Amino acid sequence: MCIICKYKCKNELRPIKFTSENQEDRFMGSKTILRDNKGTVYKIIPSDNRREVEFYVSIDKYHVLNKYSIIPKFRKIVKVERSSIYKQYNNNEKTNNQRHFMIRHLHLPNFLIANFLQNIGLRNSNESIIYQNLDCSNFQSSCSNNNSMTLKKSNMGYEIAIAMDDFVKGYKHPHILDLKVGTSWIGQMEGEPAFKARQLLLEMFPKKEDRKLEIEKRLLEKIQKKEEKISDEEYQWKLYPQKSCILKRISGLIHRIYKRNIKSDIIFRDSNSSNYNIQNDNSYYSLVSPASANIHDLRYLLKSYKQQLTIETTCQHEIGIRIQGLIGNDKFVTRQQGKELSAIKTKQTIENFLSMSPQLCKLAIRKLQILKTWLLTQTNFKLIATSIVLVFDSSDIEKCDVRWLDFTHALKRNNSYSNNFNQGLVLGIDSVLDIANRVLVRQETK
């Protein structure tokens, strides 16, 4: 039963935060996840992006990714609604508006779920969960207590979430390593979100700023070539400050170019028309004044540049992986710290993590080999910005798991893709496999 609203909750949610003490950085790719006491986690998804749902729906229970528990088990879709509960205090006190969240479960067959945003149909659901806003400390403490934390509010008044099995249920002291995998970004190929927007924006780059951008990128490439040849200590005090400064200048250039263009009343013109209104044609991106701009397209444009910048300025471009976050008893790596690690340091961190659980090392090899085989043979999806999560329980190191997740940018294949359109993802998996095999050989030798 909820303490505040006195409602009998069938299944109370316990959101868990993945942020540092000052809330400035993350320990994982996500700031929070929603968990309940029945072994389910809820991932909030963008209201204008159905790709993750479509990917999960395409994977039936007999699929190799489900058969070998490589991806989290998809259960259903839920709608997270906010409702206001008013609690009357004494006459001397003001009425306090207590915020709650209601989870409405959507029970639909798989062939209908893919269209859930177009046919929302959630208002008639009779199963609900009341979520109470409280604070919590961190992920590890949440595994042993019932604290909760505030969920980010949505302008729409509700959120859509995917309900999946909680694969760390029952772990007393979970150690988690979150790896971002792949070398692709959205908008890289024709037909992808932000591709046309990037092409149109590039046409408007002033020559002066365009040259500046190229110079900065060349400087960055020179620094990256030196990274593997120096010690970590020398990298921290010498190369990283230079790299950080260049990154800020590149980011500033892109930001200025972008902001200047969307602030002016520019309508991109079709080659066959003197004044083509692209808002009437879905094949064009509406990059006009903020009042009439397509926010969905602009968001993807910024996301595209951000993904490209992150990949090209971290070890991810070289080995196909970077550390999104690490949570352990005495070892923590935030998302920002993971971006700053060189390829050698990243490999060492992963190797040290796998060395703590021999069973995890064997499981990682087995599952990632299956995943690699599937990626090399499947032709339906291009997977961008996915993650591999490795976890074990320090109180029982035999208890461990490896999962592949984060399919927000699972793009259906189009004619512009070559046969090896997931090669960057395979590169990252190969890097983890090489590390795991090296650890396993050392363990067996001992």
TrEMBL record:
GO terms for molecular function: ATP binding; inositol-1,3,4,6-tetrakisphosphate 5-kinase activity; inositol-1,4,5-trisphosphate 3-kinase activity. It holds the Pfam family IPK. Its EC number is 2.7.-.-. Transmembrane segments: none annotated. It catalyses: 1D-myo-inositol 1,3,4,6-tetrakisphosphate + ATP = 1D-myo-inositol 1,3,4,5,6-pentakisphosphate + ADP + H(+); 1D-myo-inositol 1,4,5-trisphosphate + 2 ATP = 1D-myo-inositol 1,3,4,5,6-pentakisphosphate + 2 ADP + 2 H(+). The keyword Kinase applies. GO terms for cellular component: cytoplasm; nucleus. GO terms for biological process: inositol phosphate biosynthetic process. InterPro entries: IPK, IPK_sf. Keywords: ATP-binding, Kinase, Nucleotide-binding, Transferase. It comes from the Eukaryota. Belongs to the inositol phosphokinase (IPK) family. This is Kinase.
